[in-house]
Structure formats: structure tokens, C-alpha cells
Amino acid sequence: MLYQLSYVGPAFAARSVRTMRDLSPAEIDAFLHRQRIARIGCNAGGETYVVPVIYAYDDSAMYVVTTEGKKIDLMRANPSVCVEVDEYDADGKGSWRSVIAQGTYEELEGGAVLAALQLLRNAFTRVSGRTPAARERPADMVVFRVALGETTGRAQER
């Protein structure tokens, strides 16, 4: 897409190309720990669906709590997913970062559900500074993890 960048002027195109960089594995790990919203892309039966989720990250996996619905149906049919997390303009200069990972959907049960819920509570307590109140679990609640495989990240810093 350099032709689009050059359309707005050669100085912008040169600056944009020069400042783009790959994120290191340590930077990707730190970024995924800091963020809270991801987009999960799933595909089954000829239908592709991308949906935002709130997550907690630990040990190369994202943990999510949700309810039954289209994304769960599609991931049960095809557990291969793609996850994207991004951040724009955190520095007030128009910089951005994004991480894309291929992953595998794994529905959790038993003690793994309790551990995932605790991880989510801890992550949001750290961010908000308050402990979320315990709630009853709805019957249609689904707790899952996405075990991340190939993961890449890029940043543009201005």
C-alpha cells in the first residue's frame, strides 16, 4: 500500500515506512498483558465472524468469559481462530501497535473455569483498582481460552 502513502506526500510516506517495526516477543507479551479488548475471527461452514471480546492473558493464552451464541457455535465447529489486539494513539502522536495471533479455541470445564475466572478478576482488579463483586454464573455462560500459536506484532511510532 505504499502507493496510498505516497498519495499524501513523499515526506509522509518516507517517515511512515521508516518508523514501522516488528515487536519483539517480550514486547508482544507485555502488550497482551496490558490490553483488555481483542477481536476474535472465527470461520465455519462458509461463514466468517469477527467479534470483540474482553480477555485476560497468561502463559501464551487468552481467557474469555461469554455466553452461548454465534461465536461459540462457530468455534465449536472449527476451533482454529485468529486473534487481533491493537492500540492507537496511546502517546497522543498517532502511533499504533497491533498483535495478530493464530490460535486454538479450548472450552474450559471444572477447576479450569474457576482458575480462568480468577485470572480475569485479578486482571481487572489491577486495571480498575477495585475488586469486582462475585456474581452468580448464568446457565449459558461459557469460559474458554485461546491457546496462541504463531504470533506477530508491529508498531508505528511517530
Written overview of the protein:
Strands 1, 2, 3, 4, 5, 6, 7 and 8 form an eight-stranded antiparallel sheet that branches. 33% of the residues lie in helices and 42% in strands. The protein has five helices and eight strands, in the order ααβαββββαββαβ. The two termini are 19 Å apart. A hairpin with a 2-residue loop joins β2 and β3. It has 158 residues and is of the alpha+beta class. Residues 1-7 and 14-18 have low confidence and may be disordered.
Short description:
The chain has 158 residues and is of the alpha+beta class. Helices cover 33% and strands 42% of the residues. Strands 1, 2, 3, 4, 5, 6, 7 and 8 form an eight-stranded antiparallel sheet that branches.
Q: Output mean pLDDT.
A: 86
Which structural class do you get from the secondary structure elements?
Answer: alpha+beta
Got a strand count? 8
Query: Rg to the nearest angstrom?
Result: 18 Å
Based on Cα principal axes, name the global outline.
Answer: globular
Number of DSSP helices?
5
* SSE string: HHEHEEEEHEEHE
Main β-sheet description: 8 strands, antiparallel
The percent range for strand residues is 35-45%
By CATH, the architecture is named: Roll
Question: Do you know the CATH topology?
Answer: Pnp Oxidase, Chain A
Low-confidence stretches: 1-7, 14-18
Span between termini: 19 Å
